[in-house]
Design brief:
Elements: H1 7-14, E1 23-29, E2 32-38, E3 43-44, H2 52-71, E4 86-88, E5 98-100, H3 111-122, H4 128-142, H5 146-168
Antiparallel strand pairs: 1-2, 3-4, 4-5
């Protein structure tokens, strides 16, 4: 596929230095790479059973994990961001219990575009309120305003929690 992974990235991923990715082995034969992963107690994230609040926390966690991986020089345009490639312990949406499965992005799509496509995949089209909220998040991402994205997510997490507390009282 004419794919080349820098040596430093292989070292970071194979030695599990970056906490954002599943443990993995990389074997390079000629121009081909073979990846194998150790999932341990982590399983594929199942977003189909999540409420809106969980999806908001998930999105904030993805942004946080992306920041950490960039600190380790693994940019978002080097790996795919798909719901099927997220693993967590007990379907947790918190960043410290979640990991990406590293799979190369041959198209080198930027993080913002990936995150907007990810949102489209996880939102429930039958839930109008959730769709409207996700569109607002996508608008913030589209202009690169991650502070606004975070404020919208945080505000709505607090609102949903307050609504849930009101129902249980």
């Amino acid at each position: 596929c004419n794919y080349h992974m820098p040596r430093y990235m292989c070292d970071i991923l194979v030695n599990n230095y970056c906490p954002c990715f599943l443990s993995m082995n990389i074997v390079k034969e000629n121009d081909a790479y073979m990846f194998s992963y150790e999932t341990g107690n982590n399983r594929k994230l199942d977003y189909s059973v999540m409420e809106t609040i969980d999806k908001l926390i998930l999105l904030r966690s993805i942004v946080k994990l992306n920041g950490i991986s960039e600190d380790w020089l693994i940019k978002a345009d080097t790996y795919l961001l798909e719901p099927e490639l997220l693993y967590s312990y007990n379907n947790s949406v918190y960043s410290d219990e979640m990991k990406f499965l590293f799979y190369p992005d041959f198209n080198k799509v930027g993080f913002g575009t990936k995150l907007m496509l990810f949102i489209d995949k996880i939102k429930d089209p039958r839930n109008r309120r959730e769709c409207d909220l996700m569109e607002r998040l996508k608008e913030a991402i589209d202009v690169g305003d991650y502070n606004r994205f975070d404020r919208i997510a945080e505000k709505n997490i607090a609102r949903i929690r307050a609504e849930m507390d009101g129902r249980t009282v």
